[in-house]
Amino acid sequence: WLDVPNSIWASAGRQKKNNPKLTTKKFVRICLIFIYFIIIHKQIALYLISTPIGNLDALTLRALKKMAEVDVLLAEDTRKTTQLLNHHGIKPKKITVYNQDNKHKKIPEIINNLNRGKKIGLVSNAGTPLISDPGYELVKLAVSQGIEIISIPGPSAAITALVVSGFPPTRFSFLGFLPKSKNKQSEIFKNLDQNK
């Protein structure tokens, strides 16, 4: 029932058996508390929501639904994300900034909210979160604490560029943003060529 593990019922049953003074009312209350925490735990998730990389209409129905549904929407730039939300008539419950500048300050607060049962979504300015965008440290810590990570797939600039390039799509390398220095760029490409 409600996918409650047998060990939970066994634990509650032992409390009833070992404590004759435990009334049925108190016993039921203990069971309901167990169920509450199990349900809350099942709802804990961090959603990585992909957003359009150009055309604002290139947003999946699932992404639209999830951005409206989460308790907190983390945005790399709230101004850009608000433009997208307004275009689709979405009013999030709460939107807040999460970017490279404030990530170390925000991560403990986000993890705490997740552990309290809050549903949290992460979006970048464009494309899939974490890919050349903030989010890796948050996801890494969430995974280490057993928090479920759910990806809402959508546009990715790297894949979009690959499929229209005419290059063979069977094998490719993604290097992210290259350094501005021409010498460092040459060194990266040289190493890449040697590793073929």
Distance between the termini: 54 Å
By secondary-structure content and strand pairing, the structural class works out as alpha/beta
Cα-based radius of gyration, to the nearest Å:
23 Å
| Series of secondary-structure elements, N-terminal to C-terminal | HHEHEHEHEHEHH
Strand proportion, as a percent range, falls in 5-15%
Structural account:
- The protein is an alpha/beta fold and 196 residues long.
- Helix content is 49%, strand content 11%.
- The protein contains 8 helices and 5 strands.
- It has helices spanning 6-18, 24-43, 61-69, 78-87, 103-115, 136-144, 157-165, 182-194, and strands spanning 45-49, 72-75, 95-97, 119-123, 148-152.
- Strands 3-2-4-1-5 form a 5-stranded parallel sheet, sandwiched between helices.
- Helix 1 (6-18) runs antiparallel to helix 2 (24-43) and helix 5 (103-115) packs parallel to helix 6.
- The longest helix is centred in the N-terminal third of the chain and has 20 residues, at 24-43.
- The chain is elongated.
Core attributes:
single chain, 196 residues, alpha/beta, 5-stranded parallel sheet, 8 helices, 49% helix, elongated, disordered N terminus
What topology does this entry show?
Blueprint lengths: L5 H13 L5 H20 L1 E5 L11 H9 L2 E4 L2 H10 L7 E3 L5 H13 L3 E5 L12 H9 L3 E5 L4 H9 L16 H13 L2
Parallel strand pairs: 1-4, 1-5, 2-3, 2-4
Helix pairs in contact: 1-2, 5-6
